[in-house]
Structures are given as structure tokens and as C-alpha cells.
Design goal:
The protein has 293 residues and is an alpha+beta fold. It contains four helices and 14 strands. 17% of the residues lie in helices and 21% in strands. The longest helix has 22 residues. It is elongated.
Length: 293
């Protein structure tokens, strides 16, 4: 039987049976949600953010053993690091590789390492480090002045984050960063000079050399675990008065990195998308998340 409207005309809409979307059973929906969540975690870990575990005391008391920090992996695709920022980077051949715990053997262990590496909670790499940026390309860094302070471009640094400093009376050793004193270093183009906050135990650029900016994984900007240690890792005012050599106070020249042809590459926000893809391709999917002293 056909249904008529008030005017006696056939109502075509009422002839069509109502259709209801069949709800997916939970046993089918749950695996789908897990797959989507896993894919999102991989994308976030690869391109945006990653959590890193602190296994040593080289950044005490800013970072303690067992802390977990969140690292912004995009920020340095649009600009270079700034003095005072805490960065995670891949050490060069001159940086001594650290011993890591032997991985578990067996199929289950290999599967767990693979999944953990994809989502950013895998085992540590041998040369993943976390330090504070002290000098930028062209800076002259040395220690010490008459009061035992590190100087950058002849400007002494009052470093409130350094709680345990190296002794002044210990002679410099080019292979171990135990002494507070070190000769002046002119930071090469495209590199940064980094140091740990716990100067007595930190093995850093004082004895292992500067680090290429291209080796920087990202900026550590917040302590996320344990909850009692939650804090942002802001840039201290210590470096506010330090300027680049040959520039006046208040000048902020655009950071530049040397290119393969010997020129410079100005990093502008418009190139962010291309830069993210390029750096991600170089870095691969195998970055680990634990750091070393």
C-alpha cells in the first residue's frame, strides 16, 4: 500500500524504509581502535614529540636519574638552537659511546623492542645524549674568568643551574671533562657547544668537541615523569647579555647553517614542511629514547 500526503499525492520518502547503521561489535571495534592509536603514536613519535629517559646524573639537579622528558622534534626544523636550551642529540664519532644493558633474547624480546622503538619507548641507543647549549656557531667559549666562571664571547655566565661544579685546581685533561678549566674554543659553523649541568661528571664538549646542529634530535622542554618532578625546562636569563661576535646588544641575526656548496642556508618558517620531511628521512625510524652522560 502506498502512503499519501495531505494533498493526496504519493509521498516518495515514506516509501523508503528507514536504514539504521549497524553498530560494530566490540570485539571488532577494539582492535581497530588499537591500530589507529598505534599509528598515531608512531606518527607523533616520528615527526612531533618523543619521550626520553634520563639514566645518568650529568644534568643534575635540573634532571635526575629516572626523569622522563618530552622532546620537541619540530622546533629546530624552523630555527637553530638557542643558548641555554636543553637539547637531545646524537653524538659524533668523537663522543665516547656508552654501554647499554644487553637486550633480552628470544622472539618475544625482539618483538617488544621493535614495537617499543616505533612508538618511542624502545631501548637506548649508544650515542643519544642530553646537554645544555652554551655556545652557538662563531662563539668563543672558555673557562675560566677571575671568579671561575665560563665565559662566552668574553661575557661571564652566572649559572644558577650548576649545583655541582668541577674543581678549579684540577688540571685540564683533553680526554676527561673533570677539570673546570679548558682552553678557548671557537665553535665551528653549523655546530654548537654543549655542557652538562653537573660539571663534575658530565662528559661533554669540553673534552669531546662541539656537536653538529644536524645531529640535534630536538629540544627537551618539560619533565613529564614522575609527576612530583613536573617542570618546564625554560631558558635561563643567564644568556640574555651574550651576543654574537661582531653584533651589538639587541641584534638578532637570522641563524644560518653551512650548505654543501659552502654557502649558508637561512631557516625560515615557510620551509618548515620541507625541512621536517628532509630531516625525518635522514634520521630514520630507529632513534632510541634513553640518554647518556
Amino acid at each position: 500500500m502506498r502512503t499519501l500526503d495531505e494533498d493526496g499525492a504519493v509521498d516518495p520518502w515514506r516509501r523508503r524504509p528507514r536504514r539504521f547503521r549497524r553498530q560494530m561489535p566490540l570485539w571488532q571495534e577494539l582492535p581497530l581502535l588499537l591500530i589507529v592509536a598505534f599509528c598515531l603514536a608512531v606518527l607523533i613519535r616520528t615527526f612531533l614529540l618523543q619521550a626520553f629517559f634520563i639514566p645518568s646524573g650529568s644534568m643534575e639537579d635540573t634532571l635526575l636519574i629516572g626523569d622522563r622528558v618530552l622532546v620537541n622534534k619540530v622546533v629546530y626544523d624552523v630555527r637553530d638552537p638557542l643558548r641555554g636550551e636543553v637539547v637531545v642529540f646524537r653524538g659524533t664519532d668523537g663522543w665516547v659511546a656508552q654501554q647499554v644493558q644487553e637486550p633480552e633474547s628470544g622472539i618475544a624480546g625482539k618483538f617488544a623492542r621493535t614495537i617499543g622503538g616505533l612508538v618511542g619507548v624502545g631501548r637506548p641507543g649508544e650515542k643519544d645524549f642530553i646537554k645544555r647549549v652554551i655556545g652557538l656557531p662563531g662563539d668563543r667559549v672558555k673557562c675560566c674568568d677571575a671568579e671561575g666562571r665560563v665565559t662566552v664571547n668574553d661575557i661571564p655566565l652566572d649559572e644558577p643551574y650548576v649545583i655541582r661544579n668541577s674543581p678549579l685546581d684540577l688540571p685540564p685533561n683533553p680526554r676527561e671533562c673533570r677539570s673546570r678549566r679548558f682552553a678557548e674554543v671557537v665553535v665551528p659553523p653549523g655546530q654548537i657547544f654543549v655542557m652538562g649541568d653537573h660539571r663534575l661528571v658530565s662528559q661533554d664538549a669540553r673534552c669531546q668537541g662541539p656537536v653538529p646542529i644536524d645531529n640535534v634530535i630536538g629540544r627537551a622542554f618539560v619533565v613529564v615523569w614522575p609527576s612530583s618532578r613536573w617542570a618546564s625546562l625554560s631558558v635561563p636569563e643567564t644568556f640574555a647579555g651574550v651576543t654574537r661576535p661582531g653584533t651589538a646588544a639587541g641584534d638578532s641575526p637570522a641563524p644560518a647553517r653551512p650548505t654543501g656548496s659552502g654557502g649558508v642556508l637561512l631557516l625560515l618558517p615557510v620551509s618548515a614542511t620541507v625541512s621536517v620531511l628532509a630531516r625525518s628521512g635522514r634520521s630514520g625510524w630507529s632513534r632510541r629514547r634513553r640518554l647518556h652522560p
